Amino acid sequence: MDSEEAAGSDPMHGAKKEESSFSSSNRGRILKEECGVVGVYSFDGKDAAPLIFYSLYSLQHRGQESCGITIIDDKLETKKGMGLVADVFDFDKLSALEGYFGVGHVRYSTCGESKLENAAPFVVSHSQGYLAIGHNGNIANSQDIKSGLEDLGEVFVSTTDTEVIAHLIVRGFVKTGDLVSSIQEAMRRLSGSYSLAIATRDSIIGVRDPLGIKPLSLGRIDDTYIIASESVAFDSIGAKLIRDVEPGEIIVIDKDGLRSYRGLRRTKTAHCMFEYVYFSRPDSILDGKLVYSVRERIGEKMAEEDDVDVDFVMAVPDSAIPFALGYAKKRGLPYREGLIKN
């Protein structure tokens, strides 16, 4: 669990605010699966906002429509906006977010329109406090659940399935006072893919769907725990990957430490292959496998089944490069760069 040093360019240099970069309401009607979530809990009182910022910056490839950070101190403070992480947050905004735990989110809409009202983390206030939540995935039965909750008097202010999850959890918690059992009950009702980063008034919670469709990892630097969609978020802040969050697992981090609960058990898993093919960064480790190596091996398998007469192998950058290298190596062909990103 020792920390590892990581270096890179500072995305905050020259950062500026850009409240709206996307305006097409039709984009929300297209099914998409990418988002990125981060949760940070520091036991040594370290400010969580900078750690969340740099983690989200590393996950920017998972969502460029909007982003947000929620920090808990004596009160809950949320700042979010349309556009990239480095455009929405500057030094002054991060300095105003004081607190040692919180959650963050980058969004590429899976459900709902691309507008500020749908930006996460999404916050729901209730009689016992509040809940802030970020979600990566897609809930197939969210509309059915939403309709049922509306019949019970719940009011929704967005068009996202994230708000549906939040209301489902809060409604159970207000009744029982037990947050873990409320999440477990919500998991029994949800159908689809989800990795969740949740902040309450005293804890950070990570949740992964029972099939393990969407990734979620646990890391640590010194006395600070981090949960994130990909392990590259840990590299950016010098943290070390501890392990993947297991399918169906609920991780609770609070003043008493870290605890793991079984949310919902399935006899099989169904990891999203597109995470390995395209979504995730090649230097991420998902479910114990380096994404780069998986892509390279896929290229090798393609070569084993292919006898097309070619002169050389070329990637359509950037995610295709490991595939092309694996294919070229297996067939003994030269690799060439023919397309360069502008």
List keywords for this structure.
alpha+beta; Glutamine Phosphoribosylpyrophosphate, subunit 1, domain 1; six-stranded antiparallel β-sheet; 27% strand; globular
Polypeptide structure, described:
The radius of gyration is 20 Å and the shape is globular. Helix 10 links the parallel strand 16 and strand 17. The longest helix has 16 residues. The chain folds into 2 domains: 257 residues, 4-Layer Sandwich (Glutamine Phosphoribosylpyrophosphate, subunit 1, domain 1); 49 residues. The protein has 10 helices and 17 strands. It starts with 34 loop residues before the first strand and ends in a 6-residue tail after the last strand. The N terminus is likely disordered. The strands form 4 sheets. The chain has a 7-stranded antiparallel beta sheet with strand order 3-2-4-1-10-9-11. Strands 5-6-7-8-12-13 form a 6-stranded antiparallel beta sheet. The chain has 342 residues and is α+β, with helices and mostly antiparallel strands.
What's the shape? Answer: globular
At CATH level 3, the topology of the largest domain is Glutamine Phosphoribosylpyrophosphate, subunit 1, domain 1
Major sheet description: 7 strands, antiparallel
Radius of gyration: 20 Å
Which sequence of SSEs, written as H and E, runs from N to C?
Answer: EHEEHHEEEHHHEEEEHEEEHEEHEHE
- Percent range for β-strand residues: 25-35%
The number of helical elements comes to 10
The rounded distance between the terminal residues' Cα atoms is 40 Å
Query: Which structural category fits the helices and strands?
Result: alpha+beta
| Name of the top-level CATH class of the largest domain | Alpha Beta
- Ranges where pLDDT stays below 50 over 5 or more residues in a row are 1-10, 12-32
